[in-house]
Amino acid sequence: MEVKESAVIQLELKYCERCGGLFLRRRGVGEVYCEGCADQIAEFRPLRKARSWPRLPVNRDGSGLFVVNKKTGTEGGNA
């Protein structure tokens, strides 16, 4: 009897990262949760908001509102 290569599915044994149970997954697939945990997580997983990095306010013309004044002298300051 000859086995066709397309009929062979390679599986690997994996621990569920939520419940610790063992399950089989297709080789090369990045599943980390068993089927039961994946269903539960999908129900309760909140949607992620896009991260907004803090930015300095600017004028409508694009120039900055804050100007840094640098002293060019090497005078001593108040201690």
Count of distinct strands: 2
**CA gyration radius, whole angstroms:** 29 Å
- Structural class by SSE content: alpha+beta
Secondary structure: helix percent: 10-25%
| Major pleated sheet | 2 strands, antiparallel
Which blocks of ≥5 consecutive residues have pLDDT under 50? Answer: none
- Series of secondary-structure elements, N-terminal to C-terminal: EEH
Side-by-side strand order of the widest sheet: 1-2
Describe the secondary structure blueprint for this structure.
Elements: E1 11-15, E2 22-26, H1 35-44
Antiparallel strand pairs: 1-2
In short:
It contains one helix and two strands; from the N terminus they run ββα. With 79 residues, it is of the alpha+beta class.
Write up this protein.
- With 79 residues, the protein is an alpha+beta fold.
- It contains one helix and two strands.
- A two-stranded antiparallel sheet has the order 1-2.
- The chain has a domain at 10-44.
- It has one helix at 35-44, and strands spanning 11-15, 22-26.
- The model has no long low-confidence stretch (mean pLDDT 77).
- Strand 1 and strand 2 (22-26) form a beta hairpin.
- The longest helix is centred in the middle third of the chain and has 10 residues, at 35-44.
What are the key terms here?
single chain; two-stranded antiparallel ribbon; alpha+beta; about 80 residues
